[in-house]
Amino acid sequence: xxxxxxxxxxxxxxxxxxxxxxxxxxxxxxxxxxxxxxxxxxxxxxxxxxxxxxxxxxxxxxxxxxxxxxxxxxxxxxxxxxxxxxxxxxxxxxxxxxxxxxxxxxxxxxxxxxxxxxxxxxxxxxxxxxxxxxxxxxxxxxxxxxxxxxxxxxxxxxxxxxxxxxxxxxxxxxxxxxxxxxxxxxxxxxxxxxxxxxxxxxxxxxxxxxxxxxxxxxxxxxxxxxxxxxxxxxxxxxxxxxxxxxxxxxxxxxxxxxxxxxxxxxxxxxxxxxxxxxxxxxxxxxxxxxxxxxxxxxxxxxxxxxxxxxxxxxxxxxxxxxxxxxxxxxxxxxx
Length: 335
Hints:
alpha/beta, about 20% strand
């Protein structure tokens, strides 16, 4: 971790943690131990926007951000009035999306990501309320609002990933699937899948996606594969994993406390200060590279590991999760 003197700046990636509680009880949730039931108020939201770069990205998260939907609408309308040139997105479990929210979200230029870990038996085990999530996606489909799906890869979800992509093709408005490796928590009911399991199941999933896309004339992009393909095609050099790696991410809680990544909220080691109390510490996470990355055949193109997941998983001696996913993806592309 690199730390400097206190500074004030505009961030390229601003994350507003607008609801510090949730309507689900996911078994791998790293955040619920710090939930206090609070909602961000407009006064904090307005102050938070002072830290956003004018062409940056604003993300609404939680907890469950739709529990504070009125603030989302108010902030979005304020940014539009201000002439904001950047991007706005929301990461939600989708349970609360009804006809009203579906219509309202479709009217806003806001990217919607929905968390769904797989087919019903998988998602009900890890997250719950699968039918309500599906209903939420259908409401967005009704108003032609595209969504991306985020799936946490575990030893539970990996074996049915191919089945999952088949189900996603039943929706007209799903255009992408992102794979987020498990952040291990204390109860350890789930494990990070092995590289061989990731390779075998992701390969079948990718092939099924190409097959269905060819038939339906609509392709659901698998984020990790498309990102690595682009890096190879464009001859991109390896770089830092994310904005947190270069000190350009700011996560703001309802009380104004700040951190460099959502996964590190309420970890005192990564506390940056409070936006109501002056300037903030500048904290950069690691580049996302392991020591053994230096000798890897993919080192030139690989984006590395999520820095916060690297921190969290190493605490429980799970060191190679991201690496296993990257290697599996490069092997799939090569073959």
